[in-house]
Specification:
Two copies of one chain form a homodimer.
Chain A: H1 3-10, H2 17-24, E1 29-33, E2 38-40, E3 48-54, E4 57-62, E5 68-74, E6 92-95, E7 99-105, H3 106-115, H4 117-143, H5 146-163, E8 171-173, H6 178-185, H7 189-201, E9 205-208, E10 211-214, H8 217-223
Antiparallel strand pairs in A: 1-7, 2-6, 3-7, 4-5, 4-6, 8-10, 9-10
Helix pairs in contact in A: 3-4, 5-7, 5-8, 6-7
Chain A binds a DNA duplex through residues 145-146, 177-179, 187-191, 193-195, 197.
Chain lengths: 238, 238
DNA sequence: GTTGCCGGCTTACATAGGTTAAGGTGCGGC
DNA sequence: GCCGCACCTTAACCTATGTAAGCCGGCAAC
């Protein structure tokens, strides 16, 4: 049950056995969820943090008139509301697929981090990596054309799913609708459809029945002007 | 010299005198900078964190062909490269005005946070608030029209400058060019000019000679669909 | 005081992307 | 085996925003 969490923490280098034990005794509870479930609502002040064990989710905010913006996608191993530890949630989290979250009580988590500062730093670093991704999205939406923007998004998703071990030979489950894609890229649904067809037409990918298939990875990266360094996949903590 | 830092940390509630002393003995050095100075370069792996003591700066990334995206503006009291503590900088920081930064050595900072976990949490919370602002910018750029988008940006800047005590009767120093404004909002310079004239035409603000004057604050907030809750101005740490 | 430059402003024109509306397709429910 | 619904697709048209080019005013350098 803690495998995902330990793995996520150890991206930044191995933990000591004492640290690992401390993490494992957090008193966490796991909970299944259904596709489309609201995992965290805008305005919540949760009493525990959620680790995504299985499945996918996304972060979003909706304006009064219904326009929605998706701010990130999440894959197993991600802490999806770590910021809720200190701030009320200013956005919601919704499940894309069925899956499972692990609930880590705030109080226990804070104690753990106080007594094991190195572990605390790793949680902090997770939120810093999220922030780096937010910045990349600002750049993507602000300065790239629809075609490049969508390609870039797919590149990011594939790399992250791959790291979670969920890509098999270029194929992965990624059940988004074109509306989701529009809301993530700041485009209209119609234009997203047009652009997606262009990407398909170039033989770069296919997205159907909830499955994303990358047909030409170098081509997709080029189309998305993609450079994964902002994901900080290999950085280790001090 | 530490006034700004202590103030920033105490937004989240008072520190104990022990904590305050520990912060004050960080061995920090202050450095002046000129307008346009590159405070942190993309790719840097700094050995200290910078607190903005005086002046303004902005965070940005430039693409190969010269397109630039500004990701945030910063005011005195902000830690501008706290993420550099754990990750190499994936973007640069440039001075907008003349000013001064305080250098806090990473090693000392890490020791401080290990021995005073409550102080560590507050630094962490600062980066979480930055992340909340990044998310708001994603929404702003992705889902709002040029007019609303620019108005929203000015609202944010004014609120933050106000909190730093730099707004006097609606007037504040904010020496950005229209090009800066374009790069922050993802618009072209020409369209930024048009839109700015519309805002002026509505009697909402004036921006000239490096000075921003808010002429109609309620009107500007309405135009920017602005709700400051994402800035988490009053949240206190656990 | 001329020169050069930067930032602001304008105009004319081009286009990426939005809007509206309608038809098609697959699929679960009954 | 039909219905309804969610999603995808297409088409026609529109407009917000981008591009290219040039001018103007102020100010710093010499």
């Amino acid at each position: 049950m803690f495998r995902r969490l330990i793995e996520s923490l150890e991206v930044l280098g191995p933990l000591t056995s004492g640290e690992r034990e401390a993490v494992e005794s957090l008193g966490a509870v796991s909970r299944p969820f259904a596709p489309g479930a609201e995992l965290v609502a805008e305005g919540d002040a949760p009493a525990h943090c959620r680790l995504l064990l299985e499945g996918q989710a996304f972060r979003h905010r909706t304006l009064a008139d219904g326009r929605r913006q998706i701010m990130s996608f999440h894959t197993p191993g991600d802490m999806i509301d770590l910021e809720g530890l200190f701030l009320p949630m200013d956005h919601g989290l919704t499940a894309l697929t069925a899956g499972e979250v692990l609930h880590l009580p705030h109080a226990r988590l804070l104690d753990l981090m106080d007594s094991h500062p190195r572990v605390g730093r790793r949680f902090w670093t997770m939120t810093l990596k999220d922030a780096a991704i937010f910045r990349e999205w600002i750049l993507n939406i602000g300065r790239r054309t629809a075609y490049v923007r969508i390609a870039h998004l797919f590149c990011e998703v594939v790399v992250r799913l791959q790291r979670a071990g969920l890509v098999d030979n270029g194929r992965c489950a990624f059940p988004i609708t074109q509306q989701h894609l529009s809301d993530a890229t700041g485009l209209s649904a119609v234009h997203t459809n047009r652009t997606l067809q262009a990407l398909r037409g170039e033989g770069l990918l296919s997205l159907r029945g909830g499955e994303l298939v990358v047909l030409d990875w170098p081509g997709l990266q080029a189309a998305g002007e993609f450079d994964s360094s902002y994901l900080h996949l290999r950085e280790s903590a001090a």
